[in-house]
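__Protein archive entry__

___
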Amino acid sequence: VAALIATDDENIMGRTIHSVLRFVHPWQLKENIKTGKINKTLAWIASNYDRLIIDEISMISAELFDLIVYAVNEYNSDGRNIPLKLLVVGDFLQLPPISMKEEEPALPAFMGEYWKDFEINKLTEIRRQDNSEFLEVIKAIREDRAKEAVEWIENNIGFHPKEDKEFKGSSIFSTNKTVNAFNQDKLDRLIGKERKYKSVIEGEPPSITSRIPKEIVLKEGALVSIGVNNLKRGYANGSQGEVVELNKTSVKVRVFRTNEIETIGFNTQDNIVPESKKNIGYITYMPLKLAYATT
């Protein structure tokens, strides 16, 4: 699984498209296609994986999209090669495409020459939000019914320009420094003993490690955000809840969206080298963070 930027590929435990196809600048990809060097890379992918998945396709320009599809088609045209399937995923009403040429705006992938060759499947079931009114507002924004959306937001959502330390939900700030200070203040206000959950790092951990704290300090009653998915239990990355019990290796959280108490344990992310499938390091951490404030 690959994405255009590092944040997205880490969220899905994949790699950037540049890393997967081994190019830094678009001209290098063009050169690798011209010389046939790209075929070696695609052959390795095909021999180790069922398909190449590109996430956040809305960020891929039509020009880059056409280059990638052309390269895969040329590779697959050689009957001696293991066929490689290509799947792209994304939402064109979210992030815009990034131009391969700074002086020119980018066209979206669906305006590329090869888009017509793809079978399109639309995902219509929303899994991370069940508030019907809010979903209608999001739909209105996507359909350019701005006035309708703004009226609902003004009537149902309050915006406060100053800090409100008595507010029980999440507040949005512009800097991580302010977020950390606000979260710490709210934690300090809670009565009870705190418990620390330290991260363990071995070898060369995955790049996501840079965004995981060395330790997290919690108290019962703390507002937290969950950093892992468990759709069977009804929560996902970003779901919020309240800490109800602190144990040595786990935390019990009452998840707001389900009102169920879930046991959240330590999570391990390995750093596996795709070519050799060797695990060269890992990080084990508690996938929770204070959620009184965020950026």
User: Anything to note?
Assistant: The two ends are 27 Å apart (CA to CA). Residues 190 and 219 are 7 Å apart (CA to CA). The first helix runs from residue 6 to 11. The chain has eight helices and 16 strands.
